[in-house]
Design a protein that fits this description.
alpha+beta; Naphthalene 1,2-dioxygenase Alpha Subunit, Chain A, domain 1; four-stranded antiparallel sheet; 18 strands; 19% helix; globular; disordered C terminus; binds FE2/S2 (inorganic) cluster; binds fe (ii) ion
Length: 434
């Protein structure tokens, strides 16, 4: 439970707010490269941290991100012409390059140098892991480019997707570190049937056995370890043979979660980027260090994603106005949530809390330890920055490329933290909270 003031502090991200200032000290993924492919192609509207922006790819293939409002008299640069390395406003022809410099002002008198004084607000962009990232903070504080494991893999081994979510970023990301919902929200009734019991041994169990265990043991003992970048959380469940089923998620401030996954297979990262205070989007990055995604797999994902959207290609079909298309028959017979696809189960519950969850009325328990911790960390970092203390993990010292989730079975007496220490993780061990 939080006070109204605390809740406002961690939820509001617009320019000039403490959390907005904090967010602006990190790189933000905001569009898929696929969404902005064509040099001199049409620009794309972007809403990010409460700012209206225009993304475009110039003649040379560089990506620009400008304030939507033309600095002359505020016409929208969405209507600008993208040509010859700049966006030309259709009102008076002022033209801006990817740096925001005014490179042409045909409406001014010949010989005038006024254009040299005019700059559009522009944010630097980079492309990595199939995603376009930007930095919106002071240039002298710009951290090194994102350097997660997936930023270092060949393009073929990474699959990025983007989905709009119609609520505040925080309640949405809290779902990523809320381990105990796995035994309810995402349960298929078929998961309750025992399967692959012979894989209940220290090491990697089958996917099917994992789902069975999550469906059967609906509670988890949640433990937290602070790290330089945020924290790791371990959720431990018993197994039928008396072993421990361990899931380790890593939360990287401000909003990136490495989801527990079996190291031999595919891993995933969920990044919940605020569009504004009442909307965010999820950039999900799946990656396989040892196996590329085939063209067929990519097409299949793209088709599945587009079939979840309205004809405009942007709005999710399942949303508040239609009660997320909950199917009450399925709810009793096939899948507990009654909502499909899988991701929409999360979106439905978090959006159903309202645009910004009122955290003055909650009743949190031990299973919510990571949710409590992320709020504490965000609030502390935001307050500290107002006092001039630099945000965590922005100086490049953290071994970002080694952070990854883990899902594994360990023996009844094994210490999950020792396993965690062997999960490719080298961030220093911090204080354990629970
Ligand atoms: S408003 Fe854009 S050039 Fe005048
Ligand atoms: Fe979920």
């Amino acid at each position: 439970m939080l006070s109204t003031e605390e809740n406002e502090l961690i939820c509001r991200v617009g320019p000039g707010t403490p959390m907005g200032d904090l967010m602006r000290r990190y790189w933000h993924p905001f569009l898929l490269v696929d969404e902005l492919l064509d040099a001199d192609g049409p620009p794309v509207r972007v809403r990010l941290l409460g700012e209206d922006l225009i993304a475009f790819r110039n003649t040379n293939g560089e990506v620009g991100l400008l304030d939507e409002r033309c600095p002359h008299r505020g016409a929208s640069l969405f209507f600008a012409i993208n040509q010859e390395c700049g966006m030309m406003c259709i009102y008076h022809g002022w033209k801006f390059d990817v740096n925001g410099d005014c490179v042409d002002m045909p409406s001014d008198l010949p010989g005038s140098t006024f254009k040299e004084k005019v700059h559009a607000r522009a944010y630097p962009c980079i492309e990595s892991a199939g995603v376009i990232w930007t930095y919106m903070g002071p240039s002298e504080k710009r951290p090194p480019a994102p350097n997660f494991i997936f930023n270092n893999l060949p393009e073929e081994n990474v699959l990025a997707r983007r989905v709009p979510i119609y609520c505040n970023y925080l309640q949405s990301l809290e779902g990523n570190i809320d381990s105990t919902h796995l035994g309810t929200l995402h349960v298929n009734y078929a998961d309750k049937v025992p399967a692959d019991l012979d894989t209940d041994l220290p090491g990697y169990c089958s996917q099917r056995f994992s789902r069975y265990t999550l469906a059967k043991y609906r509670y988890a003992k949640v433990d937290i370890q602070d790290t330089d970048y945020g924290f790791r959380l371990i959720a431990a469940r018993p197994t039928d043979s008396g072993n421990q089923h361990i899931r380790i998620n890593c939360h990287v401030l401000p909003y990136t979660s490495f989801i527990a996954g079996q190291q031999r297979g595919q891993q995933s990262v969920l990044i919940h980027v605020p569009a504004d205070d009442e909307n965010c989007f999820r950039i999900s990055i799946n990656f396989r260090p040892n196996q590329p995604f085939s063209g067929a797999e990519r097409r299949e994902r793209r088709y599945a994603d587009s079939s979840n959207l309205e004809d405009d290609g942007k709005t999710r079909r399942n949303r508040k106005v239609n009660d997320w298309n909950i199917n009450r028959y399925d709810q009793k017979h096939t899948i507990l949530a009654g909502i499909w696809p899988f991701g929409d189960q999360d979106y439905a519950v978090t959006e159903s809390m309202g645009p910004i969850l009122d955290r003055t009325k909650e009743h949190l328990y031990g299973g919510d330890a990571a949710i409590i911790r992320v709020r504490q960390m965000l609030a502390t970092a935001a307050r500290n920055l107002q006092e001039g203390i630099e945000p965590p993990a922005t100086n490049g010292d953290v071994p970002y490329a080694q952070i990854q989730g883990e899902e594994i079975i360990i023996g009844p007496d094994d210490d999950a933290w020792l396993i965690a220490a062997n999960a490719g993780e080298t961030a220093k061990r911090g204080e354990r909270l629970l």
